[in-house]
Write a structure and sequence with these properties.
It is a single chain. The chain is an alpha+beta fold and about 170 residues long. The protein is about 35% helix and about 25% strand. The chain is built from 5 helices and 5 strands, in the order H-E-H-E-H-E-E-H-H-E. A 5-stranded mixed β-sheet has the order 1-3-4-5-2. Strand 3 and strand 4 form a beta hairpin. Helix 4 crosses helix 5. The chain is globular, with a radius of gyration of 15 Å.
Length: about 170
């Protein structure tokens, strides 16, 4: 784990969103521009997780409600979109939220851990990896890590670009 992700390229993300809106006006119904995000907290993890999205393995993600608050972002809504960037800050995919649930860390189940697609996809590895991740992240957002913190459990589909979109 070393280094930081580059800042996201907001203008390229806006251009990607406009391409999607032009091609899929029936799906791009968000009233606000989508958030522009990265998976993970360092370049290797960001690119690994984005790779799992592109190969079809990763179709879920989890974030602390406190992370959204810290970033001044609204919580996702079913049907809303967000733009995933690589570690260089380049927008690579538009994702669409298909299922959301808020609950404590302990409420994750094996099906969600599997859908998140990380490590060996087991509940045990999900808990170990996410506990370590949030123990790293929480100090930077001014929160003390506790397992009763609210987590946003989100499933998503890849909406754009068309060559990798879920059908």
């Amino acid at each position: 784990m070393s280094g930081s992700n580059a800042p996201v390229d907001e203008s390229a993300a806006a251009a990607l969103w406009q391409q999607y809106r032009a091609a899929r006006p029936d799906r791009a119904l968000d009233t606000e521009p989508p958030s522009v995000e990265v998976f993970g907290d360092h370049p290797a993890l960001t690119d690994e997780l984005l790779g799992l999205v592109f190969d079809g393995t990763k179709r879920a993600t989890a974030s602390l409600v406190a992370e959204f608050r810290h970033e001044g972002q609204p919580l996702p809504r079913i049907g809303s979109h967000w733009i995933a960037c690589d570690s260089a800050g380049r927008p690579r995919a538009i994702l669409r939220s298909t299922e959301l649930r808020i609950g404590p860390f302990s409420s994750v189940d094996a099906a969600f851990a599997y859908d998140e697609g990380e490590d060996d996809r087991t509940l045990e590895s999900w808990c170990d990896n996410h506990r370590r991740y949030w123990q790293r992240v929480c100090p930077s957002i001014g929160v003390e890590w506790r397992e009763d913190l609210d987590v946003v459990f989100e499933r998503f589909e890849v909406a754009w670009p068309s060559e990798v979109a879920d059908r």
